[in-house]
Specification:
single chain; 6-stranded antiparallel sheet; Alpha-Beta Plaits; 3 domains; 6 helices; Ribosomal Protein S8, Chain: A, domain 1; alpha+beta; globular; 258 residues
């Protein structure tokens, strides 16, 4: 199994992709710019390639610290990687919030209806009367010309400096606790203070996502770094493993978004 034993089976194909990126950079001496990766994917890239390497370097755009979805660059160790190397574009639009209410899912749906894949899209921010979308530079012109309506609101996207991003620091409240296992239903029960039966019901009703992907198996095992969302109850994450108790329970750190 080698490297694969440390990851879920469904993550093996992504690990293969990361290894191919690494080989590309090493053999061709050219940088590789990824599409937008979610936090778990970023974590996998960092663990597979490593933050320090004599041959290659791994960089994440540092000017967007609180964004979840980010582009990464794998490059020869001697190459100069700058902010512009990440080819990011911030698009913004306004709408009249007195007459229409837009949500994150409305913007996402309108974007995907253009036939563009999710991996070309970064974070979306929707506030009262404002929409901001971080996206790959290579699709920005197409999106600005074709994304003119969201729900019943007519919009006009314009490019803005990334410095004007309205991102907000997420307020995570961390807690140290113990659980009998790392099963999804068990950890959900502890984080959201519900019974394990209730947690299992949320999962089976397709109301739980782990790392932005729907999970329907209560026995699904969590890994440190996993992001969790429960419909109607907010977001949380499994921060770290802290060893076992004398009674073989797992000491863990979890966090819930305030």
């Amino acid at each position: 199994m080698g490297i694969y034993q440390h990851y879920r089976k469904e993550e093996h194909s992504f690990i293969d992709q990361v290894l191919s990126w690494q080989e590309y950079v090493k053999t061709r001496y050219q940088a590789k710019l990824t599409d937008f990766l979610d936090p778990r994917e970023q974590q996998i890239v960092e663990s597979v390639i490593g933050k320090t390497n004599d041959e290659i370097q791994l960089r994440i755009h540092s000017g967007t610290e609180h964004l979840e979805r980010k582009r990464l660059i794998i490059a020869p160790f001697y190459e100069d990687v700058t902010d512009t190397s990440f080819r990011l574009t911030l698009m913004q639009a306004t709408y009249n919030e007195k007459f229409i209410s837009l949500l994150h899912r409305d913007v996402m749906g309108a974007f995907l209806s253009l036939g563009i894949t999710r991996d070309k899209l970064g974070d979306i921010f929707v506030t009262a009367g404002h929409i901001q979308i971080m996206m790959a530079e290579e699709i920005a012109n197409y999106v600005s010309m074709n994304l003119t309506t969201i729900k019943n609101a007519n919009i006009s996207l314009t490019e803005e400096p990334i410095a004007k991003l309205l991102e907000k620091e997420m307020d995570w409240i961390e807690t140290d606790t113990t659980v009998s296992s790392l099963r999804l239903d068990t950890v959900l029960s502890e984080i959201y203070k519900m019974s394990r039966k209730e947690a299992s019901a949320y999962i089976k009703k397709k109301q739980v996502k782990v790392n932005f992907k729907l999970v329907v198996d209560p026995k699904f095992l969590l890994y440190a770094g996993d992001l969790i969302s429960v419909r109607g109850k907010g977001r949380s994450k499994f921060v770290a493993m802290n060893g076992e108790t004398r009674k073989n329970k797992q000491r863990i750190t979890v966090a819930r978004l305030k």
